[in-house]
């Protein structure tokens, strides 16, 4: 009887592991060319200007709307199984620099790296540029990859009224979901 219980426990454990493996595989079964949601944001916990999550993918002021279906999964060019380019629509909170070192996401252990970025002229600061898109390589979906970054709060009437114009050291979180 003891042996039978051990065998049943082992069978149940293997069955659970197999179902979790199938679920994990299914979760990352997005193909190149498919639409995903790619967000770049300053988390509300560190955004002392507004105490809200600021989505650099949102062109409105304040940029509080998370994106949906705003990017296409690209053919990977680096060491990561997934790659996407995120367009940064907000020019009031202008991303001016970002660390391109590999980062690890929380407890799940996924990794990501900024592979490249493009810049445009900053519409508020003559002669200055802001980052307008980020190409990110990453290992898994639904994880928060946090990068050291600098933003510039431009002199929009809303930001000026808050008295918060200028350089800011805010970590930028990248999250891609299916």
Q: Which features would summarize this protein structure in a list?
A:
2 helices; 178 residues; alpha+beta; 5-stranded antiparallel sheet; 4-stranded antiparallel sheet
Describe the 3D structure.
The termini are far apart. The strands form three sheets. Strands 1, 2, 3, 9 and 12 form a five-stranded antiparallel β-sheet that branches. The protein has helices at 2-27, 157-162, and strands spanning 35-42, 54-55, 71-72, 82-87, 93-98, 103-104, 111-121, 129-138, 145-147, 149-153, 166-168, 172-177. It is of the alpha+beta class. It is built from two helices and twelve strands.
Indicate the topology.
Blueprint: H1 2-27, E1 35-42, E2 54-55, E3 71-72, E4 82-87, E5 93-98, E6 103-104, E7 111-121, E8 129-138, E9 145-147, E10 149-153, H2 157-162, E11 166-168, E12 172-177
Antiparallel strand pairs: 1-2, 1-3, 1-12, 4-8, 5-10, 6-7, 7-8, 9-12, 10-11
Can you describe this structure in just a few lines?
With 178 residues, the chain is an alpha+beta fold. The chain is 18% helix and 36% strand.
Shape label: globular
Mean pLDDT: 84
Structural class from helices and strands? alpha+beta
- The Rg value, from CA coordinates, equals 20 Å
Characterize the main sheet.
5 strands, antiparallel
Distance between the termini: 47 Å
> Total number of helical segments?
2
> Could you tell me the strand content as a percent range?
35-45%
H and E string: HEEEEEEEEEEHEE
- Helix-residue proportion: 10-25%
Low-pLDDT parts are 10-27
